[in-house]
Amino acid sequence: MLAQGLSLLALSFFAVHATILGKDAVLTIESTNYDFIIVGGGTAGNVVANRLTENPQFNVLLLEAGPSDAGVLEIQIPFLCTHTTPQTAWDWNYTTVPQPGLNGVAIAYPRGHVLGGSSSVNCLVYTRGSRADFDRYAAHTGDDGWSWNNMLPYFKKSERFTQPSDRHNTTGQFDPTVHGFSGLNSVSLPGAATGIDDIFSAAINELGSDFAFTTDTNTGNPLGFGWAQAVIDGPTASRSSSSTGYLAAEFLSRSNLHVLLNAQVSRIFSGSLHDSSDQSLLDAQKEIVLSAGSINTPQILLNSGIGDNATLQGIGIDPVIHLPAVGMNLSDHPIITLSWLVNSSTTYDDFNRNTTILNEEIIKWQTTREGPLANGIAQHIGFVRVPDNSSIFVNTVNPTSGPNSPHFEIFVSNFLLGDTPPDGSYLSISAIMLTPGSNSRGSVSLNASLPGSPPNPFQPPIIDAGLLLSATDVPLMREAVRNILRLASAPAWRGYIMSPANSSQPSYSASDTEIESYIRENSRSAYHVVGTASMSPEGGKVGVTNPDLTLKRVRGVRIVDASVLPYVPAGHTQATVYALAERASDLIKDANVE
After folding, report:
1. What residues are annotated to the active site?
2. What pLDDT is stored for residue 351 in this prediction?
3. Annotated binding site for FAD, which residues?
4. Where is the Glucose-methanol-choline oxidoreductase N-terminal domain (predicted)?
5. Which range of residues forms the domain containing residue 428?
6. Which of 54, 121, 64 is nearest to 87 (CA)?
7. In this model, does residue 278 exceed pLDDT 70?
């Protein structure tokens, strides 16, 4: 055993039509030594690149495997977020292995393959999770820096809450005391009114109880229903990503920051290696920061010989560091959507099926920065907790992080979320089960097609999402579906909702068995992937990273992305990753003070 850890301060990568961004147009890889090399220009990596280069003494190279996001309307326009994946140039286009919890179906597993990473292709929803999620991270790692009280300043630091594009009065629609107004990640409320706004408000007033209105679901106590917040820059009505914010022109002009696109990293290593015809070597004097995401970070580690020794040997990779947890503990949220045909002419369905109408709206967006395309997929959102005395928990542990944490999220969309039929107007209500049980864990492993022969490091890995495998998962999804049906059955929707969009969709009076069958057949991933390089206590024998995000038993490597989260938070992951990366940047700076 190496008491001080092994130093891994170099990496190999493969560049295809490499593009250099930044003030310095000449990047001589072979002769340049960097203080920090960041692998992955995604949600977290761009934050770290920005914050480290605030110090003019630090020389930073950022490597992104995908292309630039500049000028891509599908990425820029909020409503077109559902057009960015899957099977596009901005997606890794991954597919999982067959999922037993989903009746054996293999599902698409989008990940951002573009500058900005998944923050450039996701559906923009901004939720932080609950206070207890972060207090659980602190308890799990023994580092109080991950607690809610200590992370809230980082949420605020990353955030620039902006006026929505329609400039409506937002009084009572969010709580300004828990938000930041000078950060680099823009957040806003819906920028265009919809035909369901008043109906939804009336519905939750009629139902009350779990559907009670809450001013802001991002206070750390998210229970209740309110206005959705999204990573949209209100004044420009555009997506706010880690690229548009943290790599804006003023930051790219820094002489100590280089960004190399279309450059995929294969592995990290120590010692000297010879160049090959298709790979180059880079050296980092201080740290390598892996920010390649919950799929690609473990893939790089495994290709580097960091993982379970026996497994690596079995596929022809020489083991370097025995860390069996690499690629394990993958945790994700399942999602399900119910839809109805509605009596309306103001839904957004025509934008997804009529290119003429869509192009007219795009021109309006380009010239005025207003209109329905300024909205994302959800205008209204809510979080619900199943009672602690529910029969679901009689023989098993309640999987929430604490007594005020939700079990599921519900959000409402003014169009059919999915394949759009050739005609008709629709309402969609989706539920995300936020608390997968302890058995609902998947993995990322290498694809070794030839036994004994090392896998191609650039070949897609094997991904198991591990969805709906725990005893509480389907029952909690069932309660989420029943809550959707309860919401849609409120008197306020009479005259608006006409009939289910799908005849197989369960009704309000459906049996548990009917609902559970529908769940198995129709649930998919919400793509909130975490856990594959989990942090654990300093010196702990399990896990992959220490509480300061350094790679266990290794010097000079830190992991900064969602893979370090040991549990998936009770919300969409991007807000958490922004805050995590802000804290990680401070940790890196403090550790490298000269």
Report:
1. 528, 572
2. 97
3. 114, 122-125, 265
4. 293-307
5. 81-110+164-239+333-436+459-524
6. 121
7. no
